[in-house]
Each structure stands twice: as structure tokens, then as C-alpha cells.
């Protein structure tokens, strides 16, 4: 007969609250006392190198788009499950991936039907514990020394297919979590240093792309075993006491350093509401009402007044996922010199309203949660810029593009193999403007800063697509004293197969996804363009000149067929061989007043094609000499003087502005999921 059960066959709402480090055990406290400072510094470097090798190995062995191009977090956890050492550029996993490990420590390690011993491996992807969505999957292994559990090693990676009712890991039409595919709390997938073939078969059968699913699992495990061997070699030198004490000391020092850094910032309340223009399958306005309260050595994230829970729409997100995305900003911009681990949360408190779409309960769908998370993260950028500016202006940067624009696909590739995944261009967005500098063009993805978008040839070799172009999406950024970086635009043609399913996930087709700071402009709204029954093959055969950029596409194209313009969020649909699909992955936010931009910088952008000549005139008020291509100082000064006078002419007292503005409201249909419009807290 089984021992008394700790699992209730339902979600554990207690373990997901344990985001901060566990209290030190007596074993850890004793082990910390005797650490030599010099040897400890060597230890931290050594463990980071082990984790970094694990991350790179995972990327080299995996099959999914995200795994190969860097959506990987590889870590070393304490025996209690806290993530102490993490090699990643996708920082939300640095404060989320400990939850599945803590779950298995709590529920499985001492259960006689499961247990925990050397050679085991555990798999998981339930978003309630991982904090994101079903496509983010993880694997961890326990590490023993002399029969004692001393740590865990694990890898968290986005695998492109999880068997939902739509391909590609993100289900636009999900009405409950049961539409979203595989949802697995930690299970023992391996014993005695071998994976269990029966469970591999189950997981493979649960997805449209079994080859990728299995290869990604094996990649995580192989990398973890390599790191385990490296760790055992090092344990032979330092002993288990040093490892146990060293991991705990890393977490302790991280928490202390985070609180000390927060203490240097000005106390205050920083508000930044953020808006989304989609629920997934339809356009509507939603609100993430972010307030950051900073006092002493702590910050508190307050989300009261956010939109209600959506019972049958997939943009809901668990609160723990938003905390993870808050750490993306903290790790990448506010405290980039501190270790990325959940010790950072020692400086953070939070308050999330119950039954809101950023803290739902029950069986609501969450497969579009990444979109909601990145919308929230832009609020972190904007409020964080105000928080950091007085003490360290270099940290007050505009947001990278946060609208996603993820192309999802499913079907069979040109080799007859089943496939379902996303394209890698999600990792090709523009960075935000920053103090003294423009944003970087096609910088990557702010949530996965070490990731890459791959090369066209690799994608074409494995997927049934022919790129018609992929290059800078000029004018896709927010204008400002320092402009955002350009994103990338791409066109793909279904090629080598009779048909394939194509869709998109994102937001920002009606309300801008990426707003500027300190007077900077937003990146413009974006949309997907498709052409069914395209004559592109015939045009290519005839050598007819075709658009080579998004700007040329928008200016006009000889391509004919059924042309549609779609929101960034739309469900996958079948496209025939020869049909085309055009996607903008946009640019970063603007920083500062456009009338303060260096006229010569505007002229250079026009010469390079980054900025339209009309934008130079209409937005920046810069006159460019058509013969030399240089800015005309006198004419520019006159234009800007007139523009400033026009601003003053339409100005009004603040109270008058508020009185007029407060009377405005979107149409009722747009607000059907929003919550109270007139409520001051809304």
C-alpha cells in the first residue's frame, strides 16, 4: 500500500508562492561558515563555466527552433530546489525554473512509488509551475555525493510543439487549458542513467513533431549529464561541504546585493499602465495596471486595477510568470552585474489581484501568456527608466520591441517529416533608444538576450519555406532624440509541399506594443500580410523585379492573388504551395523629444534608408539638401522654431487637459473585457 499521499491530484498553490530562496537548512548554515573567500571566488567562476557548457551543449544537441537559437536556461540548484547558478540570456527562467524542482522535492522525493536516487531524471512543462506556457519545458537531475543529495542540475527550454489544438505551441483559439496540449507536472522520465522508453513514447505521441520532442528531451539530459560529470570532478577537489555551502552563499549574497542596489534608488511610487489590443482570437483592449512602490531596500510590484480574468481566451498569465518577466528587466538592465538567480527576489514584494487576467485561477487557458508577459515587461522598462534615471541615467533605456510577431507553423516539411514550431525571427527585434545612443538595429530579443535568429539557409533546408527577403524593416522603430533600433521584415513562400498551416502570435496591430520614454515616440502598429493563390512563382520565373524589403512591399508589388491583412494574433490556417506570408518584427522605442535629435543623424538615417525622407520633414522637422544629402542648419532651425510655436499654441492648462481627456472613451465593444473604465483604480 502506498505511503500517505502529499499530492492531491490538483494544483499545489503553496509551492508556487515559494519563489524566494528557502530558509538555509542547518546543513547549509554549517557549510557556509568555513568557506575560504578566495576559494569561494574560484568556486563561483567554476560553477558558472559548468553551467555555461551545459547551456551551449543543450543548444548544439537540440532540434527545436528555440533550443538551437538560444532560448535556453541551464542551472545548478540547491538540494532544496533554489536556482543558485544560471547560464542564460532568457532571465525569466532564472527565477521560475526552481518551482518544478521544489515541487518534486516536496511531493516526489520521499514518495515510495517515485523516490529520488542517482541516475534519475525528471521532465515537466505544466505552466502553473514553470510560470510561462506549455511549450516551455524542462528537465532536471539530482546530484549525489557519498549518498547525500547535494544539488540538482537542469535545463529549461522552449520546445516548439506541445500538442495543443493548434500547431506551434501557442493556441489562439484555446477556451480552456484542455485545448493547450501536454501539461505535465514533474514526472520521473529516467532511471539508472537511462530514459524510460515508455514515457518517451507517451510524450512523443502527445505532439505533432515527435522527433523534435524526443531530441529536445535527450539534449537537455545529455547536457545535464555532462555538467554532472564536471561537477563530480570538481567535488573530488572541494568536497560536498563546499558545494552545499557555496551554493547557499551565492543566493545569500545575491539577495543582499539586490537589496543594497535597490536602496540606492530614490523612494517613490512609479506608475505605468500598459495596454494590449487582443485577447488572442479577437481585438479588444486589456489593461495591465503596473505600479512600482520603492521604499528603502525593497520594491513592490502592485497590479491592482488590471483587467479581469478571461475565462475562454488564452492571454491569461500566472502571477509567477510576470515576476519572472520583471527579472528580465532587473537582470538585463537594472542589475546586470548581479548573478541571475532567485535570490534577487529577496528585494521584491508583490500584490496581484485575484481573478484578474494576470492572476487567474481554475482551468482558463494561458498559451498566449508570453504576449501578456512582454506587455507587462514594457511597463517595467518605462517605470524602471523613471526609477533609475536620477541615480544612474545609463540604465534608463527605452524598451526593445515587445509585440512578439511570432510566426507559427505545422504540417509536413519537404522531406515528408512532421513538424510544428515557430520561426526564429522572434529573436530579431530592434532595441530601444537610450541615453546618448540610438537603439541597436535587429538587436535580438529582450527576453532572450543571448539568442539569435539563425540564418535563412538553415531554415530553408529544414522547413518548407523560401524566403523572398529578410532584412531591416526600416521606419519600424519609435522616433526620438535617440531613435529605437530597426526590426526585421521578412517574406516567405510556401515551397516544396502542397500545403502548410501558418499563423501568428503577438499584439500591437491596433494599439502600439512598444511605447517611447521621456517624450520618445512609439514603434508603429504592425500587421501580417498574406497572399493566397499568389502568382509569385510565375513572376520569379520571368525575372520580374519583386519587393526586397517591407518598405518596397508596402509601396506596391506586381504580385497578385487574394491579399489579406491580418492582426499579429491570428489562428493558423492552411496555405497552399506558392502562397506568401509577410511578417514585420518591429523596432524599439524612441527616447526623448524628436525635435532634439541631431539633424545630421536624421540625414544619415535617410541616406541609409533607415528613415523615410517624409519622416525627416514631418516628424523631426529636418530639412535635407537634395543635392548633398546633408541637413540644412538654417532651414532646419526655422522648421523647428515653427514646430515649437505650434506646440505652444495648442497647449492648455493641465486641469483643462485632464477635464477634456477624462471624457474620452473607446467604443464599448473595445472595452468588453477591459473592466471598469471610469474607476480611478482601473
Automatic annotation (TrEMBL):
Protein name: Hydantoinase B/oxoprolinase domain-containing protein
Record GO terms (molecular function): 5-oxoprolinase (ATP-hydrolyzing) activity
GO cellular component: cytosol
Pfam family, one: Hydantoinase_B
Span of domain Hydantoinase B/oxoprolinase: 38-593
GO terms for biological process, alphabetical: glutathione metabolic process
Amino acid at each position: 500500500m502506498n505511503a500517505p499521499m502529499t499530492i492531491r491530484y490538483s494544483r499545489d498553490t503553496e509551492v508556487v508562492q515559494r519563489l524566494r530562496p528557502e530558509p538555509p537548512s542547518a546543513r547549509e548554515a554549517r557549510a557556509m561558515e568555513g568557506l575560504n573567500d578566495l576559494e569561494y571566488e574560484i568556486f563561483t567562476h567554476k560553477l558558472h563555466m559548468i553551467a555555461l557548457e551545459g547551456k551551449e551543449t543543450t543548444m548544439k544537441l537540440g532540434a527545436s527552433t528555440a533550443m538551437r537559437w538560444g532560448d535556453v536556461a541551464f542551472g545548478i540548484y540547491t538540494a532544496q530546489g533554489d536556482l543558485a547558478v544560471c547560464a542564460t540570456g532568457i532571465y525569466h527562467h532564472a527565477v521560475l525554473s526552481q518551482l518544478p524542482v521544489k515541487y518534486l522535492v516536496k511531493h516526489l522525493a520521499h514518495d515510495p512509488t517515485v523516490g529520488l536516487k542517482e541516475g534519475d531524471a525528471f521532465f515537466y512543462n505544466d505552466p502553473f509551475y514553470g510560470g510561462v506556457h506549455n511549450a516551455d519545458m524542462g528537465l532536471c537531475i539530482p546530484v549525489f555525493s557519498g549518498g547525500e543529495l547535494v544539488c540538482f542540475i537542469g535545463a529549461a527550454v522552449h520546445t516548439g510543439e506541445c500538442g495543443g489544438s493548434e500547431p506551434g505551441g501557442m493556441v489562439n483559439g484555446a477556451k480552456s487549458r484542455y485545448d493547450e496540449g501536454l501539461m505535465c507536472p514533474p514526472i520521473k522520465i529516467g532511471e539508472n542513467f537511462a530514459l524510460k522508453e515508455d514515457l518517451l513514447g507517451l510524450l512523443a505521441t502527445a505532439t505533432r513533431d515527435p522527433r523534435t520532442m524526443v531530441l529536445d528531451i535527450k539534449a537537455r539530459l545529455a547536457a545535464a549529464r555532462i555538467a554532472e560529470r564536471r561537477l563530480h570532478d570538481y567535488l573530488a577537489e572541494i568536497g560536498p561541504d563546499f558545494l552545499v555551502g557555496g551554493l547557499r552563499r551565492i543566493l545569500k549574497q545575491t539577495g543582499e546585493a539586490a537589496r543594497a542596489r535597490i536602496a540606492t534608488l530614490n523612494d517613490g511610487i512609479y506608475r505605468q499602465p500598459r495596454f494590449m489590443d487582443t485577447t488572442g482570437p479577437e481585438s479588444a483592449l486589456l489593461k495591465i495596471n503596473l505600479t512600482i512602490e520603492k521604499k528603502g531596500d525593497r520594491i513592490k510590484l502592485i497590479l491592482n486595477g488590471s483587467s479581469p480574468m478571461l475565462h475562454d481566451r488564452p492571454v491569461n498569465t500566472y502571477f509567477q510568470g510576470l515576476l519572472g518577466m520583471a527579472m528580465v528587466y532587473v537582470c538585463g538592465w537594472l542589475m546586470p552585474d548581479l548573478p541571475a538567480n532567485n535570490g534577487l527576489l529577496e528585494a521584491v514584494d508583490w500584490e496581484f489581484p485575484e481573478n484578474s487576467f494576470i492572476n487567474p485561477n481554475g482551468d482558463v487557458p494561458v498559451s498566449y501568456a508570453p504576449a501578456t508577459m512582454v506587455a507587462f515587461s514594457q511597463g517595467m522598462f518605462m517605470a524602471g527608466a523613471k526609477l533609475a534615471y536620477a541615480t544612474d541615467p545609463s540604465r534608463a533605456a527605452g524598451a526593445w520591441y515587445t509585440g512578439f510577431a511570432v510566426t507559427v507553423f505545422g504540417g509536413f516539411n519537404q522531406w515528408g517529416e512532421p513538424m510544428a514550431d515557430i520561426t526564429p525571427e522572434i529573436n530579431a527585434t530592434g532595441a530601444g533608444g537610450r541615453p546618448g545612443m540610438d537603439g541597436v538595429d535587429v538587436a535580438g530579443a529582450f527576453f532572450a538576450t543571448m539568442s539569435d535568429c539563425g540564418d535563412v539557409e538553415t531554415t530553408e533546408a529544414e522547413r518548407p519555406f523560401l524566403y523572398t527577403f529578410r532584412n531591416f524593416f526600416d521606419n519600424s522603430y519609435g522616433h526620438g532624440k535617440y531613435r529605437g533600433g530597426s526590426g526585421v521584415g521578412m517574406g516567405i513562400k510556401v515551397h516544396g509541399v502542397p500545403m502548410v498551416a501558418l499563423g501568428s502570435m503577438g499584439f500591437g496591430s491596433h494599439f502600439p506594443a512598444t511605447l517611447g520614454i521621456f517624450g520618445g515616440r512609439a514603434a508603429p502598429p504592425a500587421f501580417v500580410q498574406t497572399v493566397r493563390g499568389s502568382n509569385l512563382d510565375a513572376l520569379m520565373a520571368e525575372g520580374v523585379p519583386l519587393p526586397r524589403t517591407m518598405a518596397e512591399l508596402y509601396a506596391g508589388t506586381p504580385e497578385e492573388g487574394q491579399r489579406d491583412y491580418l492582426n499579429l494574433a491570428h489562428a493558423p490556417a492552411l496555405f497552399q504551395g506558392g502562397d506568401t506570408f509577410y511578417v514585420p518584427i518591429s523596432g524599439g522605442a524612441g527616447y526623448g523629444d524628436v525635435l532634439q535629435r541631431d539633424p545630421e543623424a536624421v540625414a544619415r538615417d535617410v541616406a541609409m534608408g533607415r528613415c523615410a525622407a517624409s519622416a525627416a520633414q514631418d516628424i523631426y522637422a529636418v530639412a535635407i539638401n537634395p543635392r548633398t544629402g546633408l541637413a540644412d542648419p538654417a532651414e532646419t532651425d526655422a522648421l523647428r522654431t515653427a514646430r515649437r510655436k505650434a506646440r505652444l499654441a495648442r497647449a492648455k492648462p493641465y486641469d483643462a487637459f485632464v477635464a477634456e481627456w477624462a471624457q474620452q472613451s473607446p467604443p464599448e465593444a473595445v472595452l468588453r473585457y477591459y473592466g471598469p473604465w471610469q474607476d480611478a483604480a482601473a
